Amino acid sequence: MKAIAYYQSLPIDDPRALQDIELPEPTPGPRDLLVEVKAISVNPVDTKVRRNVQPEGGAAKVLGWDVAGVVKAVGSEVSLFKAGDQVFYAGSIARAGANSEVHVVDERIVGHMPKSLGFAEAAALPLTAVTAWELLFDRLQVSQDPQNKDQSLLIVGAAGGVGSILTQLARQLTGLKVIGTASREQTQAWVRELGAHAVVDHSQPLSAELKRIGIEQVTHVASLTQTDTHLDQLVEALAPQGKLGLIDDPQSFDVTKLKRKSLSLHWEFMYTRSLFETPDMQQQHVILTRVAELIDAGTLKTTVGEHFGRIDAANLRRAHALLESGKAKGKIVLEGF
Description:
Layout lengths: L1 E5 L12 E4 L9 E11 L1 H9 L8 E2 L4 E8 L11 E4 L12 E5 L3 E3 L6 H5 L2 H14 L12 E5 L4 H13 L3 E5 L3 H10 L3 E3 L5 H7 L5 E6 L3 H11 E9 L17 E4 L4 H5 L6 H14 L7 E4 L5 H13 L5 E5 L2
Parallel strand pairs: 9-10, 9-12, 10-11, 12-13, 13-14, 15-16
Antiparallel strand pairs: 1-2, 1-4, 3-5, 3-7, 3-16, 5-6, 6-8
Helix pairs in contact: 3-4, 3-9
């Protein structure tokens, strides 16, 4: 089967950073689906792994953790899917990625694809939707009651992949006042289109930006990028006993700054359930099923920012380069081999 992989960590402008190769087709385990990959999307985790994880023993390392495709075969213990089903999922970081013609994945972290979307539009959703859902409802424990309007959420990096779906979830399913951050006119317009009540510029001091729009403090913060840069401002912006959630990887993080206000810290990593095969691992199947229903109902929309064409090494290198530039809006998708 065709696949895109790397053999050593290299800058993305090096043609060897991602290469077109051939690999044997994988065999599904008892709870696995064998999926024909129709479309993928690219996430910051792809670039982080490529830069920081050297393949072992000279083997090719395949990236890719966002898929829409068709089930070709199922393992002996599979009960949620059958051959021919259209599915979407984010996969497991502990297994081979999905930048390949065929992929295996545990059924417990897979959802039936939204009926109203094509493969490319569906591929933009799984990783960011699961991350945003878990961050908002499992980590920050926000109520799914639209009538509960006494709380507020600041989303730092609201125009990115996770921010684009988190903004929609918070606006459509909760009573939160949603404030997104974006630094460019184009991305600010995108965040407003997604439903944010207000947008502020994270290149400016956040507390001052919030005061400019008449908000003294917020009860919740979802920090999706540059948490170490913004930490002091986030602590200032949060109300006493507020909640700070994050998904990025700060180089340093002084938790003592949270003490004076009794702020709680919540880290979201959407691979935790699959990495440790937690008893509630199948909750990700439930989340994706709910997201598909919300998409088909018109409550949520796909977050495709750009379509980069077919799935090959050259186009994936372009996608990685755009993500590393920090200028991506929404999700980058690729489709077909």
